[in-house]
Amino acid sequence: MSIQLVDHRGNPLKADKEILSEDIARAYTTGVRNPRPASVASTLAPHRLASLLRSVIDGTNPEDYMTLAEEMEERDLHYAAQLRTRKLAVAAIEPTVEAYSDQPQDIEMADRVRQLMSDDKIPELFFDLLDGLGKGLSVVQILWHTKRTPWMPFDYKWVDPRYLRQDQETLEQILLISEDAPSGAPLEPYKFMVHTPRSKSGSVWRNGLARLVAVMYMLKSFTVRDWWAFAEVFGIPVRVGKYGANASEDDINTLINAIGRIASDAGAVIPESMKMEFIESAKGNNGDSLFENMARWCDEQTSKAVLGQTMTADDGSSQAQAVVHNEVRLDIAKWDARQLESCVNEYLVKPFIILNWGVQEHYPKVKITIPEPEDLKMLVDSIAPLIDRGMKVPAYALRDKFGIPDAEEDDELLMPVSQASMQGFQTDLETSLNRARIAINRVSKSAETEIADLTDEAMNEWEQVATEFMNPILELAQKSDSYQSFLDALPSLQEQLGEEQFVEQMAQYMFQMRGFGDAKDA
User: The whole model's pTM is what?
Assistant: First the structure.
């Protein structure tokens, strides 16, 4: 398959298709891309952090900053949870594909991209691209299957940002270091996806959340360390051993060893002549609360930086506050989704189509739509009175809101209690009529007409009389809020039922039918 590679302007590019299928960003312990860098967070101090942040801007040592950003996600539980929440709010959404127009060619292109988006590796791809939220940029390598048509990605490899550098001339182009280019070389076209999410305007190297949260991370690490030291001093009672004036040096050493063992073993053996007392230490003037408040304050600032709010991320929020602040987080999720869409369309959709079918005038678009929370109960309570007043609402609109599929012809359907009761009554009535018809068919032809007339006459009068004792029951069913309340109210309804006329007519017709049968038997 002969493919002419072009850039985003349509200019020819020189590239080998074998490069598209190879893993050219792999790390080796013996190369410049070392997968085991030295720790940065363990030696973090104010002067070290300031130097580290400056090194990213001037491009002298961005590796340490990227290492710190990685370690922050591993060591700070709160930052890791908040950042993961923000990533998954977008990465968990199933993408859709929209054709540019209704033209057959545009629809065909959209179908091909849908096949691309159906790959099981797409969620992991989105998650790896969203790693740029913390570090300012994320690069993912595409491994193309070039031995069959169409060319399809068979894997996506996350590129460690420690291997990336910025072009010192433009300060914008991203370079990848290697043995052949220790200072970095431009990324191969159609080989890499570059996601640079914006949390503020400016250089991508100053745009990551890790840069914003790094100071809070350092302060919290100091606070937690001092908190544990404080707890060790003030959380354990002072142990005092007393020995007599005649105690020997061996006795004193025995007492000292016993006091030391109590701290670790919670038990010790001492001579009967010696004493040991435990003196409760002071609480340190509420120092424990001081450290806790400092650590919590750092967590709250981290929540504001990552999610844009603290009400749904930290304790002590009311429901009303959480609802309001959740909308802010929804705005952030939508912004993250739009930027991810742009990256996928530019670095995956376009290369996929260009490599296989050439440059197109228009391309389909991948969409990542964030669902907005909706109070369905409020919707039902609001729309029900409008429907009662004559507003026409299509049933499919509400079914889509609740995610209810269209009912099939053979499906068993749910219905209101009043309608179910009437349907049960009609079913019993039809059963009785069927039995009557069977009995009629068994009599002679000479009696068939007479019995049919008598049955029709009875059914006509049945419809006139039944309403007097059925309507109160149906009204009670409609007013009842549960089946139990309906059963409890039935005894008191008995006095209101007008069953006298119905019973009288039934007795009359039974008498007529008995007489008719006796006459036929005679």
Answer: 0.66
